[in-house]
Amino acid sequence: MRFVFFVLILFLTACQTNAEKMSTVDMYNASGDMIGTVALSEQEDGVQVKVKLEGLKPGFHGIHVHEFPKCEGPDFTTAGNHYNPEGKEHGLMHPDGPHLGDLPNIEADAGGLVDAELMLPGATLMEGKNSLLKEDGTSFVVQEGPDDGLTQPGGGGGVRIACGELKTNPEETTEESPTDPTEFNEEQEKS
Ligand SMILES: [Zn+2]
Prior knowledge:
Mean pLDDT: 86
Strand content: 25-35%
Pfam family, one: Sod_Cu
CATH superfamily: Superoxide dismutase, copper/zinc binding domain
CATH architecture: Sandwich
Shape: globular
Keywords: Signal
Number of strands: 9
Protein name: Superoxide dismutase family protein
Family: Belongs to the Cu-Zn superoxide dismutase family.
Strand order of the largest sheet: 5-8-9-1-2-3-7
Number of helices: 2
CATH class: Mainly Beta
Helix content: 10-25%
Low-confidence stretches: 15-19, 184-191
CATH topology: Immunoglobulin-like
Bound molecules: zinc ion
InterPro entries: SOD-like_Cu/Zn_dom_sf, SOD_Cu/Zn_/chaperone, SOD_Cu_Zn_dom
């Protein structure tokens, strides 16, 4: 027990030297336009999620953490399924749920604006099984319609309309580096 406590202290000390335990995700719609942000901050019992979006259809929309930090429009299927490290069923109202990445619906006002403050209980931005920054990271995806909190596997909220990547290493790009055209020309000249 003392050892665990000691490790915890070390861990906390290490974290203080890093940047704040916060992160901001830029959200893009299917046309590739940035429509707002999801700001994350580490809390004692989970991760606080502040959602600020514009240009949405007025009404409720599902929003979830997805398993891959890859938002390729227009359908954003590259983000994968809901983030579910504990192998649960989908839905905040499901008796065997929810996925760790399940969040309450957000509501866009008559002007299409969203300003919501949500929680992801049990999640963390630090290391661990429930880290939103495991492996390469995760992503946030907004749906066309509301999540009904029960329907498997994704809540029945319809198509994905916005996506944002939460990457472990934001400097890293997933694009392949282009081939060097000079090299190619030299090869051509030789032959
Ligand atoms: Zn889910």
